[in-house]
Specification:
2 copies of one chain form a homodimer.
Chain A lengths: L2 H23 L8 H11 L6 H12 L4 H22 L9 E2 L2 E2 L1 H5 L1 H19 L10 H15 L4 H11 L6 H26 L4 H28 L2 H4 L5 H4 L5 H5 L1 H18 L8 H12 L3
Antiparallel strand pairs in A: 1-2
Helix pairs in contact in A: 1-4, 1-15, 2-6, 3-4, 3-9, 3-15, 4-6, 4-9, 7-9, 8-9, 9-10, 10-14, 14-15
Chain lengths: 300, 300
């Protein structure tokens, strides 16, 4: 059985686990606000890769934790990711009609409902993480630390800060420092947080947490560089987005600043550094290792 | 010294307290995302009444708590309120150019930044409530319960659900049941939560919490009815909004369903019920009593 086959089965099993949990955790909105329910579910179950929740569960496993205990937080990470995609796609932002091969949220439900569905998914993420009865075995102080970590990563010093810098950089010449500012925040912050909170929830010690933080920081940046590369050369049928859309929009990307070849080299280097950061872990970190390699090989 | 004078001084003192705390708690975004910092501060310090934080502090006092300990949560409530106003004003929603007498956020910073500033304020609210070092004296389990309460009130079953129902009801005939659905959620849920979390943080017992919940539910609905009335007959210079904007937009309001006189009567009745719910409290609830009466008398 090859490594590749193992990963495919693993990813499928984990996606199923996350999808079932998301279905169970999502509140059902009825009555005059039922359209909100449809809009939230539409984007949440639009075929996402579930990378962030899978990383969170894998990090919990790597430090000897029970991935089942981390499921609510893992699902909250995916809700936040989904809200960010809905808002990014809006006409006032990237103005995308299509995501993962299907119409974007505002194309189906209208801009007003799309804005509110994003707001609601962000809010429900925090509602889910504070549902004490779902994480009875975990000390409340630890859950508070996790909520804080996720909020900082998703907030104005993290993901939203990166998104603002990205929007502001369109059609202006951007240096490597600004590119780094954007990428480490826009995608990197939440990927790093996904790894860290999985470990935090399981009571990881400082040494393991430091190693996993280096791992998460490196794969976060590698993930965004590969995203940039796929945007230039990817197959529209696989990525579900128009190839070259970043270029036509004047977006700052790794290939636009460093060129394709150097971007590929840099991503490979980051993945190697992520693997070396967790070299001291035993086979409990196998999933994290496979996920890091998978980031370089992904086509969408 | 008349009651009225006391209230004015009290409100001013509390507004100052909340404003100073908000300034201290707000993260400072620098570098390429600095515009986000300006956009968040612009709306947060645009002269809001700070009703929700003041209610939260007053409820803490009513059950013998230290309002200082409730300040972070009180400020988080105001951040959530501010985010909801920024998003409500967007062209895809109410399309308002003016709020509190000054241009709305998207008019100054653009739609993209306004959406992100709203997202960021919502996220920072949860970041603030999970900052353990600001609430060292409060048991972590209690803080988790407060975060949960705020998230549910602000989420798809609360404020956002109400907003969706409101947007969906425009230009259609709406019955009293739908009107009630909208008003109890859109404004009522967060006003109720403001009162409840102030009490919860201070370790209120179930009996006090029940009484304060009745108080909060009634003033929440009264507040929205008065808002509707002011929209019909208010002075544009005082409310900062165009009078009659709800009518021209086909919005469902209390006056449009019940008429002005019946709306006024109903608001007065709700305020009486809120006062009677807390009649068992001593003078520690004086502020809550004055605030309830103030809701009927307000001009903006």
């Amino acid at each position: 059985m090859s490594d590749k086959f193992d990963l495919k089965a693993y990813l499928e099993e984990r996606r199923g686990l996350v999808n079932r949990a998301l279905q169970a955790y999502m509140p059902q909105v009825r009555g005059p606000a039922f359209r909100l329910n449809r809009a939230m579910h539409y984007s949440l179950f639009a075929g996402g890769k579930r990378l962030r929740p899978i990383l969170c569960l894998a990090a919990a496993e790597a430090v000897g934790g029970d991935p089942g205990e981390a499921l609510p937080v893992a699902c909250a990470l995916e809700m936040i990711h989904t809200y960010s995609l809905i808002h990014d796609d809006l006409p006032a932002m990237d103005d995308d009609d299509c995501r993962r091969g299907i119409p974007t949220n505002h194309k189906v439900f209208g801009e007003d409902i799309a804005i509110l569905a994003g707001d609601a998914l962000l809010t429900e993420a925090f509602s889910l993480m504070s549902r004490r009865e779902l994480m009875e075995g975990i000390p409340p102080d630890r859950i508070l630390a996790v909520i804080s970590e996720v909020a900082v990563a998703a907030g104005c010093l993290g993901m939203i800060g990166g998104q603002v810098a990205d929007v502001r950089s369109e059609a202006t010449a951007v240096d490597a420092e600004t590119l780094y500012f954007i990428h480490t925040r826009k995608t990197g912050a939440m990927i790093l947080a996904s790894v860290r909170v999985g470990a935090l929830l399981s009571g990881a010690g400082q040494e393991n947490l430091d190693a996993l933080s280096t791992y998460g920081r490196n794969i976060g940046l590698a993930f965004q560089i590969v995203d940039d590369i796929l945007n230039v050369e990817g197959d529209r049928l696989i990525t579900g987005k128009s190839t070259g859309s970043d270029v036509s929009r004047g977006k700052v990307t790794f290939p636009s600043v460093f060129g394709l070849e150097e971007s590929r080299r840099r991503a490979g280097e980051l993945v190697e550094q992520s693997l070396s950061a967790i070299s001291g872990f035993d086979e409990s970190a196998s999933a994290l290792r496979m996920l890091a390699r998978h980031i370089m090989e992904r086509r969408s």
